[in-house]
TrEMBL record:
This protein's record includes keyword Chloroplast: no
Protein name: GNAT family N-acetyltransferase
Record keywords, A-Z: Acyltransferase, Transferase
Native organism taxonomy: Bacteria, Bacillati, Actinomycetota, Actinomycetes, Kitasatosporales
Active-site residues, record numbering mapped to chain: Y124 (proton donor), F409 (proton acceptor)
Residue ranges of every copy of the N-acetyltransferase domain listed in the record: 1-157
Signal peptide location: none
Binding locations of acetyl-CoA: V83, G84, V85, R91, Q92, G93, A94, L95, T96, S119, E120
Subunit structure, as described in the record: Homohexamer; trimer of dimers.
Length: 409
């Protein structure tokens, strides 16, 4: 099995091979693929697994994103995508070979983090990825959606207007970019995605209504993208599904939520992606009106340069910790002294006794602050070498706000 890089000339074969591996068909698109979820794929970052007879039987690729870290810095990351092997060539080492080659290529580009959305949770941990952000679905029954009178609620001095997604793509792009730069765990949406209408709504051509919020000066600072389902002929109501709410602060989120929850002829409103511990349910007069679905893992993180990754993120407590990190997939092992002072970290190799021993995938899970080290200690995934190790780690890795990622790729 040969693993080789792809080029733009391989686009047609890459798309066909990828779809075959997933059991899908490309469908009808424009000449440049515009409007398809795969149209923004970067073929200079793609890989083919090639069988002995010269036919491509597997694909892997990566998007060039920025990831916002705790503390607010946005750093380049590889967004792994389009990973699949034809059913005729599975269990022959193609996936492992592509993953090994891909991580090598990512390092050569100078990127120290790789991220992905895992179709199956058991696949990617063995390659060093760990779940790092989580999302909830929140369903609110419309007839129980009254808001409580809140003593500390901030007054909304802005305004809302109703638009169609086709008519405001430039505004959505600008608002999302402002949002992702302030939200830990958020990924950039490159302009090419908006230009090609790649991905999911509201980027895609799928028709969507947009509730756009403007601040007191008329500057857009949030939006909600939604669509209505089929009308229930008996109850004369529909389900309103919100793809995403992008808001620069909680007051804007509340204004957008009030608007969609006040829609006529609606039986329920489904918010597809709500961050963990979001306050919306607590703003309702009836807290049970908001039903939280199962928490789903979303963004998986893989560290490729442990010291650099730990130095790059921001910190909100002082202290030090010795981490003994095992990276079985790449055959690497390191012990690092992490020292944090005034929000900045130093991380150097050390021979001191470790406080925690962990796999690189579990370091990926705690890296953004979405999973506490003590949770993984209690689960048996991380080994704490003294009673206070997990407490110190929890304090160090905590963040001011939970990481959250909305972008689908």
């Amino acid at each position: 099995m040969e693993i080789r890089a792809t080029t733009e000339q391989d686009r047609e074969a890459f798309i066909a091979t990828m779809h075959s591996a997933f059991g899908l068909f490309p469908g009808t698109t424009t000449a440049d693929g515009g409007g398809a979820w795969w149209s923004a794929v970067e073929l200079d970052r793609g890989l083919f697994a090639v069988a002995d007879d010269g036919r491509p039987v597997g694909t892997a690729a990566a998007y060039s994103f920025e990831l916002t870290l705790p503390g607010g810095d946005a750093v380049p990351v590889a967004g792994v995508t389009a990973v699949g092997v034809a059913p005729t060539h599975r269990r022959q080492g193609a996936l492992t070979a592509m993953m090994r080659r891909q991580l090598s290529d990512i390092r050569e580009r100078g990127e120290f983090l790789s991220v992905l959305l895992a179709s199956e949770a058991v696949i990617y941990r063995r390659f060093g990825y760990g779940p790092a952000t989580y999302t909830n679905k929140l369903t609110v029954q419309r007839h129980r959606a009254d808001f409580a009178a809140l003593r500390a609620a901030g007054a909304d001095t802005g305004s809302v207007e109703l638009l169609r997604s086709d008519d405001c793509q430039e505004i959505l792009e600008e608002v999302y970019d402002r949002y992702r730069r302030a939200q830990p765990g958020a990924l950039s949406r490159p302009h090419r995605w908006w230009e090609l209408r790649a991905g999911q709504a509201p980027i895609s051509p799928a028709p969507r209504h947009i509730v756009l919020h403007r601040d007191a000066d008329g500057v857009p600072d949030g939006y909600a993208s939604y669509a209505l389902g089929e009308l229930d002929r008996v109850n004369k109501t529909s389900t309103l599904t919100v793809d995403e709410v992008i808001a620069l602060d909680d007051t804007v989120f509340t204004a957008l939520a009030r608007t969609v929850l006040g829609h006529d002829l609606i039986g329920q409103v489904v918010f597809k992606h709500v961050p963990a511990r979001h306050p919306l349910r607590w703003q309702l007069a009836d807290i049970r009106a908001g039903e939280t679905g199962a928490e789903d893992d979303w963004l998986w993180v893989r560290l490729l340069d442990v010291p650099r990754a730990l130095v790059e993120r921001g910190w909100f407590a002082d202290g030090e910790l010795v981490l003994d990190v095992d990276d079985a997939f790449l055959g690497e092992h390191g012990r690092y002294l992490l020292t944090v002072r005034d929000g900045k970290a130093e991380c150097v190799e050390t021979d001191r006794e470790p406080d925690l021993s962990l796999d690189v995938s579990d370091l990926g899970s705690i890296y953004l602050g979405g999973t506490t080290p003590s949770t993984l200690v209690r689960a048996g995934r991380i080994q704490a070498h003294h009673p206070r190790a997990a407490v110190v780690a929890d304090d160090l890795f905590r963040t001011e706000r939970p990481p959250h990622c909305l972008h689908w790729f």
